[in-house]
Amino acid sequence: MENHTMDSTMKVSSLNCIDLTNDDLHHSVVSLKQACLDCGFFYVINHGIKEEFMDDVFEQSKNFFALPVEEKMKVLRNEKHRGYTPVLDEILDPENQLHGDHKEGYYIGIEVPKDDPHRDMPFYGPNPWPDADVLPKWRETMEEYHQEALRVSKAIARLLALALDLDVDYFDRTEMLGKPIATMRLLHYQGISDPSKGIYACGAHSDYGMMTLLATDGVMGLQICKDKNAKPQKWEYVPPIKGAFIVNLGDMLERWSNGFFKSTLHRVLGNGQERYSIPFFVEPNHDCLVECLPTCTSESDLPKYPPIKCSAYLTQRYKETHAELSIYNQQT
Ligand code: OGA
Ligand code: NI
């Protein structure tokens, strides 16, 4: 376990900032590409989601986590990874963590009605929702945010396509982001982390999917490690910028791009203040075959990873990091 010194942990990272309203497309693509080759973390501003609406989403998130635990357990996560995840449910870095993450969460995916032919696919299906009498307008707010974040994700994916020398609409096709897996997660962190004791708000990990759009409140906590093999590892804080998303690429895009674009290790340290964040995880369609993109291979750069179906890859990754549901003795 690592030594927690001020010097190594207070370093602040400076990331490129992509302005979605910038008319100079070439500039945006160059800046994005540089960020993706370097660490895969960047800010996105002027995304069109209003600040008052964001405040509303965070307020509703707080309202949920403030409910008594019995009420929250009524919407405990199901086998489709929807719903409430209690404190310590997830363990992202078992090698360095004493026990699970000091956070609770709530997963919301794409709403697939009971009579939809695709409802049986993993990561699809109806969402559980808290009782509307207990949290009025909660579902509407979250569904609107889900839609908005997906719109922004698609705009970023178009820039990513250009940065990868692909057609601008490459990721828009049905088997990719036309019918994606996209899951938002409300998170609530509490407590003080102590890396020397293996206690983390969120253990070190890289995200599994294509990309993640992270909205946070103003509380510091997120750190990245650009070189996971360095000894000792160097962690830098990523400060929140009001109104900006912190966007990071996931392992699936690293694979897809043959390792050119980076998915970087990150974690969250708690400083005793409560902290709320909302990651939005973007993955292509279940059936999408994630195999080396045509522009990322050449005679000297043969594909490094075997092709894998998106849903198979994700299922495996979730299984590795979440507790078995049976431990909750769920009553049906
Ligand atoms: C995650 C994550 C960071 C944060 O949920 O994958 O990295 O600030 N979250 O909550
Ligand atoms: Ni993450």
From TrEMBL:
It comes from the Eukaryota. Residues 180-284 form the Fe2OG dioxygenase domain. InterPro entries: DIOX_N, IPNS-like_FE2OG_OXY, IPNS-like_sf, Oxoglu/Fe-dep_dioxygenase_dom. The keyword Ligase does not apply. Keywords: Dioxygenase, Iron, Metal-binding, Oxidoreductase. One of its GO terms (molecular function) is dioxygenase activity. The keyword Oxidoreductase applies. Belongs to the iron/ascorbate-dependent oxidoreductase family. This is 2-oxoglutarate-dependent dioxygenase 33. It comes from Cardamine amara subsp. amara. The lineage of its organism: Eukaryota, Viridiplantae, Streptophyta, Embryophyta, Tracheophyta.
